[in-house]
Predict the 3D structure of the following.
Amino acid sequence: MYKKIALLPLLGTLFAFTAQAGEVAPTPNGLKLPEGYKDWRVISVSHRIDNHTLRMILGNDIAIEAARKGQTNPWPDGTILGKMVWKEKPEDHWKTAIAPDPDGFVHAEFMFKDSKRFADNGTGWGWARWLGREQKPYGKNAGFQQECIACHTPVKGQDWVFTRPALLP
């Protein structure tokens, strides 16, 4: 059985609480929080029932164009996909729906497609994650990317990307 998700009306408000890109330290592999990501468009949303999180998947202009053209396997170089993750909570005024918890921002994670720069990891992608609203860089060293690669191995045949763009009619 599917639950209705009252997600999009709250995302703009919740998004305002994340840290500003210029104030955030890079991840151990040297990747920086992309400038202007808060103005990117939504590619899709997801709900993880195992850890009770809601995710908004964003894309830079290159990702949006590729998604609209159906050119996502592989995604073109220059693509950046972002995932904003919140804990879920029942919607206050719609009890049969779930919504992001405004105080439950978990992390922001990004995938950077550059087949030359990231050729050494065998994926063509660089991964980065920042935790909480403070946007603390995740990982103690650049090796944290192996966790990302291991997790994304089931979708190796989809250019290592779980997200399927939600196309508008």
